[in-house]
Amino acid sequence: xxxxxxxxxxxxxxxxxxxxxxxxxxxxxxxxxxxxxxxxxxxxxxxxxxxxxxxxxxxxxxxxxxxxxxxxxxxxxxxxxxxxxxxxxxxxxxxxxxxxxxxxxxxxxxxxxxxxxxxxxxxxxxxxxxxxxxxxxxxxxxxxxxxxxxxxxxxxxxxxxxxxxxxxxxxxxxxxxxxxxxxxxxxxxxxxxxxxxxxxxxxxxxxxxxxxxxxxxxxxxxxxxxxxxxxxxxxxxxxxxxxxxxxxxxxxxxxxxxxxxxxxxxxxxxxxxxxxxxxxxxxxxxxxxxxxxxxxxxxxxxxxxxxxxxxxxxxxxxxxxxxxxxxxxxxxxxxxxxxxxx
Length: 342
Known about the structure:
Helix content is about 70%, strand content about 0%. It is mainly α and about 350 residues long.
């Protein structure tokens, strides 16, 4: 097996996670709310299945990064799913509840890959007997052990965000928007944080605008390197595809945070609303805008404010922030945002 540096190893894990997130979440992001609106029950169910299988898909896409064998790849997919905590036994029945903890899933996937690379081909014909049983039971058990500790991180971040709500609407909007813009590019679950603290009202609206700022900002900043299709996937799907780039080069978030600060301020100014269930999605699937309109009403004025807040401001600020940090200050460039799905 090829030897990897620690940096290369982590980068491959994060890249695999990013690709898996895109594959599993984009169908629901593109079609989920549309399917509900038009009562396309089967489409809604299929996209829901895709979303819930995130950890399994993530395990496979990580395996592809390391060019693992079919036996190793299948083993990694199962182990990653166990580590996510998405699969649970309730009264003796196996239940798939949500996508699980992405951070713990990635952690356990990394440990499992390291173990399989260490074992390599030493077991020869016994590989098919030993590797799945050993990795799934031992490292899978480790995943269940670390799950509550890793998941507590969501609670800590949630407590911090909850403190922001004590400020005035504009200040709270800025702080919450910037926090969620950063979280949506990290392995942390924005939806999980929002639900943990029951983030609602302007706080939820600011969270969604922060994610819009990240999605549009990353699309514009990396357009020259990524092209049209990958760029729009940042806001139609998930900005989490930039996770590997964030770890390698944290400065890529500077224009995004500026965008989020300005966009978040308008959450307070325009009284953008949301619910704990809608916070954490941004414009993906139109969940953020539709939930705001469900609360304030579908009037002409509210529709205009929604378009301005969720699209116009973050898009304009994306060009402004990119111009400042790329063209003028030369701190970032389009290549810093290059996403490689190979």
